[in-house]
Design brief:
By secondary structure, this protein is mainly alpha-helical. It has 4 helices and no strands. Helix 1 crosses helix 3, helix 1 packs parallel to helix 4 and helix 2 crosses helix 3. The longest helix is centred in the middle third of the chain and has 39 residues. The relative contact order is 0.11.
């Protein structure tokens, strides 16, 4: 499957908070080159694509772990509140229906 590296870089920048310098440093590429990939002026070579893919997987995994940790934190907080006040309803982290 062909991957659109302009979108991959854009997602890492917008969703995961990395800038071109951070991306470049983490994959060992000059940030100006990463910028050209982001603009679609150039395409990364095979080795650079491999590094970008690895970074993307790491960033996604970090985000998933952070979301799970945050969900667990709020679940514990809401569980404590639920035992002290029988008010509202909430579901589990697994189906993302936490509310009170």
């Amino acid at each position: 499957m062909k991957r659109n590296y302009t979108r991959v870089i854009d997602e890492m920048r917008t969703t995961h908070g990395l800038n071109l310098v951070a991306i470049g440093q983490r994959i060992g590429i000059d940030p100006r080159t990463v910028g050209k990939w982001a603009q679609g002026k150039h395409k990364p070579n095979k080795e650079s694509r491999k590094r970008l893919n690895q970074l993307y997987r790491e960033v996604k995994q970090d985000m998933t772990t952070q979301q799970k940790d945050l969900c667990d934190f709020f679940w514990e907080l809401l569980s404590q509140r639920r035992t002290t006040q029988q008010k509202g309803s909430f579901g589990s982290c697994n189906n993302s229906t936490i509310w009170i």
